[in-house]
Amino acid sequence: MSTIKKFFYVNRKAPYGTVYALESLEVVLIGAAFEQDVTLAFIDDGVYQLMKNQSTAGIGMKNFSPTYKALGDYDVTKLYVEKESLEARGLTIDDLMDLKWEDEDDDWAENDSIRVVTSAELADIMSEQDVVLSF
């Protein structure tokens, strides 16, 4: 009998200019498709991955940010954003996409996927994981 491991994906990089953000998102979706228990954290410039109204017109890259809206369909419902990283960049949760998931056990109630937590809270969450991957 196998046990489901908890996978924690740490996103530290801005969404464009490197492949890290896109590769992280792809790995998360693949893992979730194979029923991994997935949690994501966005720290440092990784908080920019969840920004509203992203436009890549000036850099000639595909805007993959709408894909984050599909995470709830893959039961990826735990997205943690480090409060200190937001504040250091002059951002608040209102600057981030409104990501929701539907709880089938609660008459399909919509719940927020993004939770803003302190670095200390994030460290506690990370300590409970089986596997930590940093992008």
- Strand residues, percent: 15-25%
Provide the structure class.
alpha/beta
User: Unreliable runs, pLDDT <50, ≥5 residues?
Assistant: none
Element string (H = helix, E = strand): EHEEHEEEHE
CATH fold-type name: Hypothetical Protein Ychn, Chain: A
Mean pLDDT: 93
In angstroms, what separates the terminal alpha carbons? 31 Å
Task: Please identify, by name, the CATH architecture.
Answer: 3-Layer(aba) Sandwich
Shape: globular
Q: Please tell me the total number of domains.
A: 1
Biggest beta sheet summary: 5 strands, parallel
CATH homologous superfamily title: DsrEFH-like
Overview of this protein structure:
- The chain is an alpha/beta fold and 135 residues long.
- The protein contains 3 helices and 7 strands.
- The strands form 2 sheets. It has a 5-stranded parallel β-sheet with strand order 6-3-2-1-7. The protein has a two-stranded antiparallel ribbon with strand order 4-5.
